[in-house]
Structures are given as structure tokens and as C-alpha cells.
Amino acid sequence: MARPPAASCDPGPAEQLRETGRPYSAVPYKARAPDPGEAGPVNTTTITSGPLTALIARAAVRYAYVPAMLLGVNGAALALTAAGVANGIGKMWLPALLATAVAASFAAERLLPYEPGWNSPVGDGGRDTAHTFVNETLILGSVAAIPALAAVVSVADFWPHQWPLWAQLLVAVLAADAGITLVHYASHKIGVLWRFHAVHHSVKRFYGLNGLMKHPLHQTIEMTAGVTPLLLVGLPVEVASLLALAVAVQLLLQHSNADYRVGPAKYVLALNEGHRFHHLKWAGIGDVNFGLFTLIWDHLLRTYSYDPSRRFTSDDLGMAAKPNYPVRYLPQLTEPFKPGGACSTSTAGTATPESA
Fold this sequence. Notes:
This protein has 356 residues and is an all-alpha fold. The chain is 51% helix and 0% strand. Residues 1-42 and 344-356 have low confidence and may be disordered.
């Protein structure tokens, strides 16, 4: 099939200038720390008015939500895993902790929303629930299959079994972060990968479940890249279970609509303040901040971007080149297989539709 004109796929500099007031640039938002005395983000939900209980709740979300999720939920998982290993009670805690994390995510977004409108479904609630159920079921199934997978792909048992469980999880997180981040980066450069990754970028509101909204084939590719190196060196199933929960918690935080703060950690941890830039809808402009757990690889690849004054709305999200991307679950699963399923890449202004 002949290629249509590139303009049908990429909105180009003119549209970006009209919609943003900025000339075309691959990374228009300069990566920098705020200057001394510079004001914080424009869109800041107040926590200084209302009843005392509401003030306390909003302050807790702003400053304690991220530590509670990263340290509290994952810490509980570490403790329960240690108890399970000692007493042979298995990993029945995993779905319960995941449900707790999802519930906490929804509560935080309603107590202190970055954008109140993003808390209301726009015909996407059932779809996002389906994505979450399918993808988390696949992850849980993969964890259960790890002993069999390890028997097939393990090269040698170099895993540091003697280390504390938290240190083993940290090693797994950093290794998985590298593999998943690099596949994510490649998915914005390689046409066939972008077709499947485009499902994730079709969102028009930015909230926790967006992180779990992925085409199952693309999620499988990402997780394979993140976990296979660990399996090769003897990843234990207990650590894999902890890693699976840590990934889910991180995705909830990374896409959260909660207006939380983490201070200077936002330059290192891949959380929502930076990840919103990744979801800007213009081709090439969102090719920044690819990291899952950390922004280490973005600093190394020079794809890190942040502007403390940037304000995001639904008009900034989605894909400018494909504004009518299917919204419902099953059409999203089939869209990548269609001739016009997506642009060949999302890269700065040069994307052309794939031929079929």
C-alpha cells in the first residue's frame, strides 16, 4: 500500500505553534531546576482552607502519599514476604496489597487533585478497568510461572540470595528499570513498537489507572526486557513477586492525578510531575522522561525535560496526529494491527505512516 502524505500523520510545526504558542522543538521545555526564589508549579491545589480534618488529609496527600506508597506498601510486601518464606504461607498478600494501593490512589486523587476534571470518566472508566484487570492478571500469571521459566532460561545462579530481602528488591528494581526504560525509549523510535505503545498515549486525562492502561502485547515486551536478565542470573520467585507489586505501585504514582510533592527527588524519581511531559500530545515533544522507576537513563540519554511553570490540561494529552484514536477496550486491542493503526514513530516531526 502506498504511503499517504506525512502531513496526515504528523501535525507539524504550524499546529504546535498555534496550540502552544511555542515554535517547534524536539524538547521545548528546557530541562532545568527552578531558579532561587522561583515560584512552584502554576497548578497547585490549596491545602490551607477548609475544615481541620480536610486540611490534615490534603497535607498528608501532598507530603506523605508518595512515601506511604513507596515505603509503606512495598515495605508491607517485604514484611509479608519474609513471613511467608519463613512459614510457607505463599504469596496470597499480593492481590490484597495491590487492591489497597489502587484504593489509596483513588482516594489521594480525590482529596488533592492536580486537575479535578481528570477524576471524572469520559467514557474510559470501563476500558481502563479492563486494561488493569487483564494486565495485572498477566503479571500475576508470569510471577507464578517464574520457576518454570527460570528452569529454561537461567544461565547460572549469580543471584545474591544472602542479601537482605530489601536489597535484593532494590537490585531487581534498578535492573528492571533499565530494561523497561530502554524498551520504552525504543517504542518511540521503532514503528512496530509504537503501534502498540500508542494505546497508552491515547489517554485524554492523566490519573493512576493510566499507568496500567497498556496493550497487553506491549506490556509483555516491556516486562520481558525488564525481567529476562534477572531470570538469567537466578531471580527468586519471592523477589519477582515484590518486583511485580513495585511496578504496579510505581505506575499508579507516575500517572497519579494527586497534586503531591517530593521536593528535589523529582529530578531522580520518575513520578507524575515529570511524567506529564511524556504525555504531551505533539510528535516528538513527548519523547522525554521515559524512565519507569528513575530518571537516570533519561539524564544519560539526554531525554530529561522539566519546566516548573508548565500547566497541563486535557488539551495537552493524547496524540495530536491521531486525535480520534479508539476509546473502547477491544478496538484498542485491534487498532495496532490495522494499516492506519499508528504513525511509524512518534519522533520529532519526521513520523510517516507505516505501509501495510
